[in-house]
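Thread title: Can someone regenerate the structure for this chain?

I was given the following input by a collaborator and told the matching structure tokens would be attached. They weren't. Posting the sequence so someone can regenerate them.
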Amino acid sequence: MTLSPTAVQAAPLLTYADGTLLRDGRPHRVLSGSLHYFRVHPGQWADRLDRLAALGLNTVDTYVPWNFHERTPGDVRFDGWRDVARFLRLAQERGLDAIVRPGPYICAEWDNGGLPAWLTGLPGMRPRTSHPAFLEAVARWFDAVVPRIAQLQAGCGGPVVAVQIENEYGSYGDDRDYVRWVRDALVERGITELLYTADGPTPLMQDGGSVPGHLAAATFGSRPEQAAALLRSRRPGEPFLCAEFWNGWFDHWGEKHHVRSARSAAEDVGGILDEGGSLSLYMAHGGTNFGLWAGANHDGERLQPTVTSYDSDAPIAEHGALTEKFFALRERLAAVRGTELPPVPADPPVLAPRTLPVTRGAGLLDALRAAGTAVRAPAPLAFEELGQSSGLVLYEAEPLLPEGGHMVTVTGLHDRAQVFVGGVPVAVLETETASFTVRGTGAPVRLALLVENQGRINYGPLLGQGKGILGGVRVERRLVHGWTMYRLPLDEWSPRDLAAAAAAAPAGGRAGFATARLTVDEPADAFLALPGFGKGFAWVNGTLLGRYWHIGPQTTLYVPRPLLRAGENFVTVLELEHLGEHLALEAGPRLGPPEEYVETFD
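Best answer:
Regenerated them for you:
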């Protein structure tokens, strides 16, 4: 169906009056669920939307991550996995309205909150403000994306009934000129449907993020009656909308798997509905942080990288299975829908458990030197200076060290460095300033630091922070100069690049590449485990699934059925610490020991 951008109705489909939300003039509840097209394989979009409709929802909402669509400046793509218009049309075919949240900042536990690293890495950049250079870049992005959304608005015959202005801005700043600029930029590019803001349910957050004349919504995971009272006290003529109800939560590496009981989630959903409110479940289906798109948080003392799974204890699990929470929420939603819901689909099939012997490939450092692009400079360069967003950089220098022990200090480290002296591992550094001891003999020492970007911060004042070695490396008080850096943007490697890297050097040492073969008669979902492995990255048929790490909580990686083919499939692993003897397929996901978690604003 071709949608004309000129066929715009005079009024939005969603309006409100006297505290009541209206759809085409009739009382209405938005019963939405967040489902991110960028976290679900395109071959599974339709299936996941069917499951969302079966949950009892009438709307789907999604962010649009800028960095996912414009990985390099000027190369804006909306094809394949990035075809957001196709995703929205599939939603419409299932009778779902759509809410679009184009940012430009999205948070979402997504790398850099959706902002491109090439933008935030520019000297003097001030993201999420009315800083002219930032607004100029956002304007160019909006020129590309907003007209596509506008063509799919309800007034043009499409599914889009609402568009969000920025995202939880009141949790970040109070540049009201900036937020109004974002509103105006959306309108100037054709948005005519309902515009709204979404912020935490506190006066401070609502003050910072709301825009006079536009619906102010709240995001929360508990105490719906308090949120409703706050919004109504501030905006007495507006309907109560929970733009994100956190019925689950995400996970960080090294922590437990956050869960929320079906009963707890259903009770608070019931509380929103009892208040006459509308809502969006965050997440209805979480999906996966494929590649290196997982973001990170910072608790004021340390980085908290987000895991590869974005299951989020959602009612529709990472692989599409329907949970106890699904049925508890479906019952609540059915009671207010008043119509028969679509039938409940069966859970997707899963490959049977098995063991996959591995063949060791190129040893770690030799492989990375062979596969990387070498850059030489007097001082270590940051990822941004190297034109690299994610992955690894191998830093090497050869300082002359007198005899005896010497303290070597790295400053401005982001995020994690494995240290090698003469090819032998000697330390792992995980703090911004860290030291280790090296013994000198009066000769040059080959010093190597393999630095990993573990995910860019997606929330809070450290948004846009750089990666790599941002300070320097010194021996005692003397700086080390003369560096060779090997660029290793793993998520940009083609299948051919990956195969070449795995065979670039002889096997050797405890770490490096390994491969395995998986033969299947009929493709189905799978859960890949790496027993005996430490930390690294896994690919299936050339597609990067994401990171794994023995510290958990998750110990399996989700392999979507569309990545597999009948016959022989290939698994490639880049292990940074210690290789195991085999891989394994598990019968289901292993997301780690659970911990009940309900977010509050105490």
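Residues 36 and 252 are 19 Å apart (CA to CA).
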